[in-house]
User: Which sequence fits this backbone?
């Protein structure tokens, strides 16, 4: 049988709940989705628990599961994925962290965990940090900018450990945390000390930066802290091609996603104009995905805007991002052809009124152009998905894609 190409689309943080200003509709329910709904004639839809019912995923653990790697076995922290995606070259023993440019007050209490999110000066601030803090206690320090408020921090030196806790309190109104060793090794104690000393130096440098004086003069929140989380020493992961047979490529601007996909051996493309934000160039991403479909079995198209809008509580921007994802899928099908299978889902729910990830199941749509038993529903959203035939977890995705693209091998004789 002819093997079908696969377009896997993730709207980050897509899942939601009823939203009061949308007349109790969800953003997906409210959004105008002519392309997605045109696929329903030959689609199964339903609900996916990225990790398991009620478990609140991060984008990191969720994407490992969606690509078929059990995070319980393969996940050891977000930092190294973020750093790889932001351009760091990691050598064995380097400890990487995800960081947030954030705004803190004089008592180091977090006022804004993202310093306003759009930080035009981010690259310059990172350059200043790299110039002024090249090392701490003999440990080399490097900062890498991802997108928006996202910064990766890499520590290089002997006897370091990723068994250290976050300085990010994960909440506004809380003081930044002291990093603590999470095991009783000397290397963990040493690393925690370096992180705490580094945090003091970062605050000193950023508080004195002229760039933050400028931000304050413009009424913008100063990016006067880097909150650190997800310490990890990178470990090699199995490659998608080896365990699934799928030659895969990804289109993304988001450091975490680029790092995960690179770790799986996928080609990663960030087309000019792709920003990882609500202002991304959707059509550029669509063209890149269509082009990659020529040489790949699977193309993964990641859209971060739905999550960014959700975390910022911006309902209309989440609806608009979903409508742009609809157009993006349409552009890929118009450009490459519609004889491909399309799986569209989210990596977790980020209810826009909650402004945080939740453990709710996420709607999933699987369009198969050949003869399948379609659910024949008329709209794709969290409510209609409850009437669909799919009820899966993230770890089922690759097997579903292999089966419906005519690539699955028999389990058994
Ligand atoms: O946007 C991201 O990087 C994560 O999904 C959320 O991280 P943040 O809450 O620190 O922005
Ligand atoms: Mg996410």
Assistant:
């Amino acid at each position: 049988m002819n093997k079908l190409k696969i377009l896997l689309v993730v709207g980050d943080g897509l899942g939601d709940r009823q939203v009061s200003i949308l007349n109790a509709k969800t953003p997906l329910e409210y959004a105008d989705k002519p392309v997605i709904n045109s696929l329903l004639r030959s689609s199964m839809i339903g609900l996916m628990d990225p990790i398991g019912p009620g478990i609140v995923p991060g984008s990191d653990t969720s994407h490992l599961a969606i690509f078929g790697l059990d995070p319980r076995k393969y996940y050891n922290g977000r930092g190294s994925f973020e750093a790889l995606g932001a351009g760091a070259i990691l050598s064995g023993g380097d400890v990487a962290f995800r960081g947030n440019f954030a705004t803190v007050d004089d008592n180091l209490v977090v006022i804004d965990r993202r310093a306003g999110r759009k930080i035009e000066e981010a690259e310059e601030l990172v350059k200043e940090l790299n110039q002024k803090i090249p090392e701490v206690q003999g440990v080399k320090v490097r900062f890498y900018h991802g997108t928006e408020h996202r910064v990766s921090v890499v520590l290089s030196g002997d006897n370091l450990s990723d068994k250290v806790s976050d300085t990010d309190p994960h909440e506004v109104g809380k003081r930044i945390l002291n990093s603590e060793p999470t095991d009783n090794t000397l290397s963990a104690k040493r690393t925690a000390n370096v992180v705490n000393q580094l945090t003091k130096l970062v605050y000193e440098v950023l508080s004195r930066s002229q760039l933050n004086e400028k931000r304050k003069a413009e009424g913008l929140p100063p990016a006067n802290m880097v909150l650190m989380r997800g310490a990890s020493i990178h470990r090699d992961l199995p490659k998608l091609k080896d365990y699934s047979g799928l030659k895969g490529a990804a289109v993304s601007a988001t450091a975490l996603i680029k790092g995960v996909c690179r770790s799986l051996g996928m080609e990663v493309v960030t087309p000019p104009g792709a920003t990882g934000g609500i202002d991304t160039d959707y059509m550029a991403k669509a063209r890149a995905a269509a082009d990659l479909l020529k040489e790949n079995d699977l193309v993964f198209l990641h859209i971060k805007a739905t999550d960014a809008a959700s975390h910022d509580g911006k309902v209309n921007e989440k609806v608009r991002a979903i409508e742009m994802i609809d157009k993006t899928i349409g552009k890929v099908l118009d450009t490459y052809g519609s004889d491909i299978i399309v799986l569209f889902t989210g990596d977790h729910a980020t209810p826009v009124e909650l402004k945080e990830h939740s453990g709710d199941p996420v709607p999933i749509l699987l369009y198969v152009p050949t003869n399948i038993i379609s659910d024949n529903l008329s709209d794709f959203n969290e409510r209609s998905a409850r009437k669909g035939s799919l009820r899966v977890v993230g770890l089922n995705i690759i097997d579903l894609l292999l089966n419906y693209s005519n690539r699955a091998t028999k389990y058994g004789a």
About this structure: The first strand starts at residue 6 and ends at 11. Residues 5-76+237-404 form a domain with the Alkaline Phosphatase, subunit A fold (CATH 3.40.720.10).
